[in-house]
Amino acid sequence: MLDTSAENQRRHDLHPDQPVWLFGYGSLIYKADFPFLARRPASIDGWARRFWQGSHDHRGTPDHPGRVVTLIRAPGNRCAGMAYQVTPDVFQHLDHREKNGYLRVTTRLTFSDGQQQAGLIYLATPDNAAFLGEASEEHIARHIAASHGPSGSNTEYLLQLAEALRQLNVGDEHVFRIEHYLLASAG
Ligand code: BEZ
């Protein structure tokens, strides 16, 4: 199975005593299973959240991957989420958790007060073997409804993300339309 954890450990030479900001736009928003020094709502410019990445190890299986979020370049768009200030040792755990195609990439975060900082995101690009790519939001909803993996149902992932975005007062039409189609088909 695809495993990007070694590449992530190799490409980032972080000083152990130097905290870094990590921007979460998916399950990191609602599942912070790691210690952090601070947590602040934040956004990144020029990116959009999309259910275009396959999940072989959490919300699906290698034979039937689920669909989870990644980011795509979207000039003029702002993607909102949650930033965590962490010590670099947490990446051992997170690189393992997000090993199915995600690489850590540096980008600029904007906090709600307008302050900016460099930070890291986990990004799954179209050239990774688990990438599924674009599909209609109706199709994505049907795919999610039919997918399950070791971390639970893909539906649970979608609904938790949508709820976490609402709690943050974040509008995301892509996520909310998929949620709408999924709930409508569930009757
Ligand atoms: C996130 O919440 O930012 C995230 C979670 C899993 C994989 C990639 C990103």
Explain how this protein is built.
By secondary structure, the chain is α+β, with helices and mostly antiparallel strands. It has six helices and seven strands, in the order H-E-H-E-E-H-E-E-H-E-E-H-H. A five-stranded antiparallel beta sheet has the order 1-3-2-4-5. A hairpin with a 4-residue loop joins strand 4 and strand 5. The radius of gyration is 16 Å and the shape is globular. The mean pLDDT is 93. Bound molecules: benzoic acid. The site of benzoic acid has 9 residues, from helix 2.
Listed once per kind, the bound small molecules are: benzoic acid
What best-fitting shape do the alpha-carbon axes yield? globular
Q: What strand line-up does the widest sheet have?
A: 1-3-2-4-5
Q: Just give the CATH class.
A: Alpha Beta
Number of domains: 1
Helix content class: 25-40%
Low-confidence stretches: none
- What count of helical segments does DSSP give? 6
* Integer-rounded radius of gyration: 16 Å
- CATH domain fold name: Hypothetical upf0131 protein ytfp
How do the SSEs run, as a string of H and E?
HEHEEHEEHEEHH
CATH architecture: Roll
What's the end-to-end separation, in Å? 36 Å
- CATH superfamily name? Gamma-glutamyl cyclotransferase-like
Q: In percent, how much strand structure appears in the residues?
A: 25-35%
Largest sheet: 5 strands, antiparallel
Extended strand count: 7
Mean residue pLDDT: 93
